[in-house]
Amino acid sequence: MAFTYPETKRIEHVDDYHGTQVPDPYRWLEESAHTPEVRAWIEAQNKLTLRHLETLPAREKIAERLTELWDYPKNGAPFKKGGRYFQFRNSGLQNQSVLYVMEALGDEGRVLLDPNTLSEDGTAALNTTSLSKDGRYLAYAVSQSGSDWVTWHVRDVATGGDLEDRLEWSRFSTAAWLPDSSGFYYKRYPTPDEGEAYVAELSNAQLMFHKLSTAQSRDEVIYERPDEPQWSFHPQISDDGNYLILSVTRGTEQRNLVYYQKLGEATFHELISNWEARYLFLGNDAETFYFQTDLDADRQRVIAIDINQPSKAQWRTLIPEKEDTLQYVQMSGDEFVCLYLQDASHRLHRFDNRGEFISEIDLPALGSIAALNAERDDNEIFYSFTSFLYPTTSYVYSLEVGKSNPLDTHQLTFTPESYETHQVFVASKDGTKVPMFLVHKKGLKADGQNPTLLYGYGGFNISLTPSFSPSRLAWLELGGIIAIANLRGGGEYGKAWHEAGTLERKQNVFDDFIACAEYLIDEKLTSPKKLAIQGGSNGGLLVGAAMTQRPELFGAAIPEVGVLDMLRFHKFTIGWAWTSDYGSADDPEQFRTLLAYSPLHNLKEGTHYPATLITTGDFDDRVVPAHSFKFAAALQAAHGGDTPVLIRIQTKAGHGMGKPTKMLIDEQADIWAFLTEALEVST
Fold first, then answer.
1. Which of 78, 177, 531, 665 could pair with 184 in a Cys bridge, judged by C-beta atoms 3.0 to 4.6 Å apart?
2. Is the dihedral of CA 191, 232, 182, 86 positive or negative?
3. Three-state secondary-structure class, residue 389
4. So which residues are the catalytic ones?
């Protein structure tokens, strides 16, 4: 089918990068998505895209099946505060999950907070919550239309009513309650200029204290560093209620500082004052603080620091680095419950407070821990387990008995027994072994004709582990293969694995992904015309780089909310924070590296690119939609083939978090329908 794309205005704009002239003809698309000219462009592109998607014969059938697959009860792992139990539940198709409170585990409970009542269209979402230690108050943060900006409110758990407290211009923050529930610490930013809230660079965070039932204007600045505008502050109250622990971060660097303050005193003490490693505060026994760290341990360890003798020479290793990657630690009672990654799937181990191994907690299958909740003064933990073919299920584990019991069961209109999951290891360009999960019907024929979706991320120390997605079941039922690649840049094998996919080594990530695609083709699991690639955010960059470097290798590409202009990403909102992984075009050497793979700048006129559906949201204030807008305009202009190059711009949506169920189903139906046509999938 031949497509006539909306005409996109080109302007004469050239930037000089260290003596290199780089045209930017679509610079005007960086204006707010809500300005008249950009809005008109959005409407024209959406009109073309939606008109095409609505004509696809499989679209309605897929949407109906997705709705059926989605419609089952989903219960999160419970958590406990002040003797009460709390749990998020979704009856099936509710736009947002509902928070319940129970007096005893297993009770039906009552609704404490229903985010579905916050807006008529479901686009107001619960971003994060924090309960006071006694379980009396719930601080909850609400985001609108997928924005990262949140507004904090406080709810009385007993009455279910809200206090008058309302705290604005907070972002990437928790609420750390004082032990007496009189108030909490949180992070806020300066009020942005009018019209700049979704695009302006984010800087100058402040650690604030809010006293309950007072106006935000009376909140006290506890800590700020105007001399370090990129520093960010993350407060935590120790379980014994004696200390405020402050983790200081800088962008997305996997390093931080640690300060502490004895509650009731004004002075912060610098415990960790060098940007050399990552330290996660786990808890304390009196003046002994426990941390998870990658200092001298690429795959992490647990250490103890006596704050009265804080020199490194006095630090003690409790749980040394192991072959598996230590991903998360939760203290419960006098134990450390440690979550390990073994070839990108999870293991749970118990250690006592001296670091002695107690036992492994048996998990149902190859899969992932989606949540791990425990209280220091309790003897039970709650966790939820998930895998590719079985839905997330919650368990309670007794430390005394040493046994897990499931808290829910699921009845699906899907037969997981007909499918299988296995893992392969692919040799990348430089010989590095890259894990990849494959999910498909049993008895699959290796004839090169299987429609395949290859998904990846490869960045920011984030690991892709097995997880359940009702949307992917529809693809499996169509005879498709799901391939999940664990690329360098992620956290699957610790610090070295992450750093091998950063800065001047970023090309390793794309080479890993391309090697996984070639493996699928060489093993005759699929062929280029049957192979699609997908990724979101940093994964959108991955897809953009792969399709511009090897366009002949793929039949379709789905870059979602992607970072696609690598020369200007650091100019918007929180983009500067990603320079730890990417580098910056402000640096001459890093500029050359970025220019070599930046998807926007590596499109070549007349090239036959794969069928492409770009997705973004007009309220995305993390990866601003200008990335997708400019890439779509440039790709439509450069494309030399007749396959579609479309952009789907979701209105009243952001980077992805908090999307209502109806919006998720509609978007996924569009993606699967697009791929059935592009890859010629029989429906």
1. 177
2. positive
3. coil
4. 537, 620, 655
Written as one letter, the residue type at 113 is L
* The pair of three-digit structure tokens given for residue 258, joined into one six-digit string: 């640690």
Q: Is the sign of the CA dihedral 62, 67, 70, 72 positive or negative?
A: negative
Residue whose C-alpha is closest to residue 619's, from 649, 666, 652, 648: 652
Q: What are the pLDDT digits (tens) for 144-174?
A: 888 899 999 999 999 999 999 999 999 999 9
Residue reference for tokens 């604005």: 168
On whether the pTM is more than 0.85, the answer is yes
Strands annotated E in 486-583 = 531-536, 556-560
Q: Is 554 helix (H, G, I), strand (E, B) or coil?
A: coil
Residue 539 to residue 239: CA distance in whole angstroms:
37
Q: In which element (H, E) is residue 471 found? A: helix 470-477
Hey, what amino acid is at 165? Answer: D
Rounded CA-CA distance 681/69 in Å is 20
The amino acid at residue 450 is: N
DSSP 193-227: PTT-TTTSPP---EEEEEETTS-GGGPEEEEE-TT
Q: Are 550 and 514 in contact (CB under 8 A)?
A: yes
The set of residues, in sequence order, having a beta carbon less than 8 Å from that of 495 and lying 6+ positions away, is 254, 294, 298, 299, 461
- Given a contact cutoff of 8 angstroms between Cβ atoms, the answer to whether 488 and 512 are in contact is yes
